């Protein structure tokens, strides 16, 4: 079974600065998808960014980018120019290509953005 | 396009009762998945329905069941409620072959 680990329960960053959230996963599969979701206090889960394992190029979405290290099974999220609205719980998630929509989530990292 | 909707948003039930939660996916999305979120266990997959068939099931007791209708709307039922069933229940939908799941706002269930 796949597992996802986020070793940082809490992180904080100053507004306009950069922060990196860590995620490691364990799988025996070679093809899969990885995601970062954001959950603000409203509890609505919002997709931030996704990465297909077969792609070597790291995904980027505006101020959000990932560092995908397949051999190390690492998938970190970098938030540049942090904004107050980035404050939320961030979840790393894994989806196999053979298990439909089933997502395996990490424990989450609570990000605080200080003005 | 309207997002995923879940009803009701909040629910209070008594131990031993049963409850039904509803999820309407984004139009055109045929896959609906359910997740339970608790402070202790985090986010856990309950089950997935696709074209009215359960395609995948998580490690939950048989008290948790679901179904999907021909219009892709899904319901989740929990029978004989226990205090530990208190949680945020999230539903997500995905278009067939799509990478991404879109989540609803959740139903907060409190069991007393």
**Computed Rg of chain B:** 13 Å
Q: Assembly state here? A: heterodimer
Estimated helix fraction of chain B? under 10%
Largest interface: A-B, 22 and 25 residues
* Count of individual beta strands of chain A: 12
User: What is the general shape of chain B?
Assistant: globular
> How many distinct helices of chain A?
0
Note the overall shape of chain A: globular
Q: Determine the strand fraction of chain A and express it as a percent band.
A: over 45%
Terminal-residue CA separation of chain B: 37 Å
Structure description:
The complex is a heterodimer of chains A (115) and B (112). Chain A is an all-beta fold and 115 residues long. Helices cover 0% and strands 52% of the residues of chain A. Chain A has no helices and twelve strands. Chain A has strands at 3-5, 10-14, 19-21, 24-26, 32-39, 46-52, 60-61, 64-69, 74-79, 88-96, 104-105, 109-114. In chain A, strands 2, 5, 6, 10, 11 and 12 form a six-stranded mixed beta sheet that branches. A four-stranded antiparallel beta sheet of chain A has the order 3-9-8-7, with no helix packed on it. Chain A starts with a strand and ends with a strand. Chain B has 112 residues and is mainly beta. Chain B is built from no helices and eleven strands. In chain B, strands 2, 4, 5, 6, 9, 10 and 11 form a seven-stranded mixed beta sheet that branches. In chain B, a hairpin with a 2-residue loop joins β5 and β6 (53-57). The termini of chain B are far apart. The relative contact order of chain B is 0.33. The model of chain B has no long low-confidence stretch (mean pLDDT 95). Chain A binds chain B through residues 33, 35, 37, 42-47, 50, 52, 91, 99-108, and chain B through 31, 33, 35, 42-45, 48, 50, 55-56, 58, 88, 90, 92, 94, 99-106, 108.
């Amino acid at each position: 079974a796949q597992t996802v680990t986020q070793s940082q329960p809490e992180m904080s960053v100053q507004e306009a600065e950069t922060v990196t959230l860590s995620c490691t996963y364990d799988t025996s599969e070679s093809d899969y998808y990885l995601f970062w979701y954001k959950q603000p206090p409203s509890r609505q889960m919002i997709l931030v960014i996704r990465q297909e394992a077969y792609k070597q190029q790291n995904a980027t979405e505006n101020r959000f980018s990932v560092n995908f290290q397949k051999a190390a099974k690492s998938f970190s999220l970098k938030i540049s120019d942090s904004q107050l609205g980035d404050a939320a719980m961030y979840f790393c998630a894994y989806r196999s290509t053979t298990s439909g929509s089933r997502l395996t989530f990490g424990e989450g990292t609570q990000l605080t953005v200080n003005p | 396009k309207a997002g995923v909707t879940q009803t009701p948003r909040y629910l209070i039930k008594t131990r031993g009762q049963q409850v039904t939660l509803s999820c309407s996916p984004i139009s055109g999305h045929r896959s609906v998945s359910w997740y339970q979120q608790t402070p202790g266990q985090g986010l856990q997959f309950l089950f997935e329905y696709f074209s009215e068939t359960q395609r995948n099931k998580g490690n939950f007791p048989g008290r948790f069941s679901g179904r999907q209708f021909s219009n892709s709307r899904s319901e989740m039922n929990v029978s004989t409620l226990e205090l530990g069933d208190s949680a945020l229940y999230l539903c997500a939908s995905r278009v067939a072959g799509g990478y991404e799941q879109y989540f609803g706002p959740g139903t907060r269930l409190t069991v007393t």
